[in-house]
Amino acid sequence: GAVVSQHPSWVICKSGTSVKIECRSLDFQATTMFWYRQFPKQSLMLMATSNEGSKATYEQGVEKDKFLINHASLTLSTLTVTSAHPEDSSFYICSASRTSGGEGETQYFGPGTRLLVL
Amino acid sequence: QKEVEQDPGPLSVPEGAIVSLNCTYSNSAFQYFMWYRQYSRKGPELLMYTYSSGNKEDGRFTAQVDKSSKYISLFIRDSQPSDSATYLCAMIHTGGFKTIFGAGTRLFVKA
Question: Most buried residue, A30, A52, B8, B96, by most Cβ within 10 Å?
């Protein structure tokens, strides 16, 4: 159980276009979803946290108008990179958490989406 | 000072060796400690999950938490080439769910 999928797994786009990445929890309801970005040989950098039905909370330095997050349901969150530029090329990973009865929230990660902006 | 410090390595060991991976942290409010394994170009997968201090064992993996020293470890026994990956430690504050990750340690197990 606790499977998280991401689509697409990789995408190549032209500079200036927008790209949408989907994150789905397949067999559980995710109260919270997280979006991370990872540069080569670096750790995960949290971009934003989203709860179903409310606005996402962005980390300092992350442009909310550029990285649009929509948490449409308890099983789906989307990240849209608007007007993508080559410096947006990266590995984007989502994770989802569910309440676990008083224990700390464990995050279940998706497989990641590799974005290349030409 | 970073909240979580982890040596990025790389760490190279022969097959069958015992591997010790470590993280230190500065915030005593951390209560939940995790280890993730990430293969190249893949998302991280949860390996071990520990609450507060103590040891937890799962097969060849043992997670250890020493809250007095603010130090956590992951031991891998009888290491295999398939264990070659990046290992990230992660921690959660009491009452929160924002997870703080270490930078990850790259491990190479040579056959």
Answer: A30
Structural contact between residues A39 and A46, judged by C-beta atoms closer than 8 angstroms = no
Q: From B97, which residue of chain A is nearest by alpha-carbon distance?
A: A105
Q: Compute the distance between CA of residue A104 and CA of residue A109 in angstroms, rounded to an integer.
A: 16
**A95: number of CA atoms within 13 Å, CB side?**
25
Please choose, from the candidates B56, B55, B59, B51, the residue with its C-alpha nearest in 3D space to the C-alpha of residue B83.
B59
The pLDDT value given to residue A53: 79
- What percentage of residues in chain A have a pLDDT greater than 90? 51
Q: Which residues of A touch B107 (CB under 8 A)?
A: none
Q: Between chains, do A104 and B101 touch, taking CB under 8 Å as contact?
A: no
Q: What is the CA radius of gyration of chain A?
A: 14
Cα–Cα distance, A73 to A75 (Å, whole number): 5
| Site from A44, A51, A106 to mutate, B interface, most B CB atoms within 10 angstroms | A44
Q: Which residues of A touch B (CB under 8 A)?
A: 6, 32, 34, 41-44, 46, 49, 91, 93, 97, 103-112, 114
CB B107 within 8 A of CB B11: yes
Q: Yes or no: say if A62 and A43 are a contact pair by the CB < 8 Å rule.
A: no
Record the tokens describing residue A103, joined without a space.
Answer: 């224990």
pLDDT along chain B (111 residues), means of 10: 83 97 92 88 83 89 94 96 94 71 90 94
Q: Which residues of B touch A93 (CB under 8 A)?
A: 43-44
